[in-house]
């Protein structure tokens, strides 16, 4: 009898403690002077008990910013193998005809493996580039047109080269460009705000202000891509002749040169929130699935086959999160995280795709460590007025959670928003 009474008291105490924890969590949200100045939503899911345990506006729709890349991660895991196809080709007589696959890594400053370059430079065959027909524009719906100057928004193309950006840097007082071809496209113009390089809006010419170039100066600017420029840059880089073969459709049987580890490229996209990689990986998936570059069709395919079962409809217009048109709910992000757990059964391998608190990527300066290790792994998302995190958390007691924390329409207080999120997520870590 005493044992039974003790058990009942123990469970009553545990239930009371848990209720107090939820009450405190609710107070952290409802009494926050930071969060209640804008629109926010939150969802917490217990991975061990397979159930939602807490939510605030978890069914409302938010602009997710770069949390959108979680959809691109899932799509890539479903469609790409261990390696990314860098180039498709056939040999016909004395000629090698090749097509792009959308691979973003060719001559990319950080990711180029050299395999595609070596293949093209060493082949004994005459080279012919057959550009694919791409019906979509180089930008996605909902992107800011004025961001054409910024390296986070390069053109999206069927065969990227140099990351579709030109890198300018100060080398012993001289302005050098990679690719070198662009050095002749720079003119000096008077400036009113210090040294800068500005691209013309509708052509590949750049103005360099007349101020003295700072030591160590380096910047990247997107260039306007077209198939003729691609061939010129490739000729200049390979130091050999390449002919443009327009209108030559790719046959069903081709060979591939694989360029890079899929995991390496996905980690770069996720850890550092690379928009260019996200959009181009979407194109690689479309190329492999439909033999065409059609991002809209690819998004439709993913929605029909994977996302229609979500409890709330999502609306995506790009693969990177630059579009303000994208709309998701915190609960739909949880459902996506559960799909990712199904796609990558090894938990440590899955967490390796995510920035880790105080350890890596866009979370390296946020949160603290628990016994020398991170306790939170999340994809961040940031555009004007938007900050979000969606990912996984391990509590001090060892319980595992998925979460999505979204903030929209905040003004001039990103640091405070981040601080409030850290406070709440750290509370969950210590008390749940």
UniProtKB/TrEMBL annotation:
Top EC class, one word: hydrolase
Xref: InterPro entries: Beta-lactam/transpept-like, Peptidase_S13
Pfam families registered for this protein in UniProt: Peptidase_S13
Gene3D superfamilies registered for this protein in UniProt: DD-peptidase/beta-lactamase superfamily
Keyword set includes Cytoplasm: no
Domain of life per record: Bacteria
UniProt GO MF annotations: serine-type D-Ala-D-Ala carboxypeptidase activity
Keywords linked to the UniProt accession: Carboxypeptidase, Hydrolase, Protease, Signal
SUPFAM superfamilies (UniProt xref): beta-lactamase/transpeptidase-like
EC number: 3.4.16.4
Signal peptide: 1-21
Family, as annotated: Belongs to the peptidase S13 family.
Entry protein name: D-alanyl-D-alanine carboxypeptidase
Species in which this protein is naturally found: Sphingobacterium corticis
Record lineage: Bacteria, Pseudomonadati, Bacteroidota, Sphingobacteriia, Sphingobacteriales
């Amino acid at each position: 009898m005493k044992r039974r009474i003790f058990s009942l008291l123990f469970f009553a105490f545990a239930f009371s403690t848990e209720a107090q924890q939820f009450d405190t969590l609710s107070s952290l949200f409802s009494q926050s002077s930071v969060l209640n100045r804008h629109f926010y939503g939150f969802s917490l899911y217990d991975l061990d008990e397979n159930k939602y345990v807490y939510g605030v506006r978890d069914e409302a729709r938010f602009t997710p910013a770069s949390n959108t890349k979680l959809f691109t991660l899932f799509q890539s895991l479903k469609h790409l193998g261990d390696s990314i196809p860098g180039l498709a080709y056939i040999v016909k007589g004395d000629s090698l005809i090749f097509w792009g696959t959308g691979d973003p890594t060719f001559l990319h400053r950080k990711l180029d493996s050299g395999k595609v370059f070596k293949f093209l430079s060493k082949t004994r065959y005459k080279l012919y580039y057959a550009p694919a027909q791409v019906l979509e524009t180089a930008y996605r719906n909902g992107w800011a047109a004025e961001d054409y100057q910024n390296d986070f928004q390069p053109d999206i193309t069927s065969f990227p080269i140099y990351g579709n950006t030109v890198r300018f840097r100060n080398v012993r007082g001289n302005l050098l460009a990679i690719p070198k071809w662009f050095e002749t496209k720079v003119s000096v113009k008077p400036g009113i705000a210090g040294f800068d390089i500005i691209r013309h809006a509708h052509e590949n010419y750049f103005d360099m202000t007349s101020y003295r170039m700072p030591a160590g100066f380096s910047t990247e600017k997107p260039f306007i891509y077209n198939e003729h420029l691609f061939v010129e840059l490739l000729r200049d880089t390979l130091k050999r002749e390449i002919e443009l073969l327009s209108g030559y459709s790719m046959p069903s049987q081709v060979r591939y040169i694989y360029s890079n580890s899929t995991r390496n490229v996905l980690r770069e996209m996720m850890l550092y929130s690379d928009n260019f990689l996200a959009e181009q990986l979407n194109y690689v998936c479309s190329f492999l699935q439909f033999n065409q570059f059609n991002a809209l069709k690819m998004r439709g395919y993913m929605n029909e086959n994977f996302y229609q079962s979500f409890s709330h409809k999502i609306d995506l217009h790009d693969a990177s999160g630059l579009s303000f048109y994208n709309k998701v709910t915190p609960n739909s992000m949880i459902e996506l995280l559960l799909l990712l757990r199904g796609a990558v059964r090894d938990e440590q391998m899955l967490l390796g795709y995510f920035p880790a608190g105080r350890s890596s990527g866009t979370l390296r300066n946020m949160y603290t460590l628990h016994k020398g290790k991170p306790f939170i792994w999340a994809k961040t998302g940031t555009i004007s007025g938007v900050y979000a995190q969606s990912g996984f958390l391990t509590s001090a007691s060892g319980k595992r959670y998925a979460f999505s924390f979204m903030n929209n329409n905040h003004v001039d207080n990103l640091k405070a928003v981040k601080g409030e999120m850290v406070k709440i997520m750290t509370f969950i870590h210590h008390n749940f």
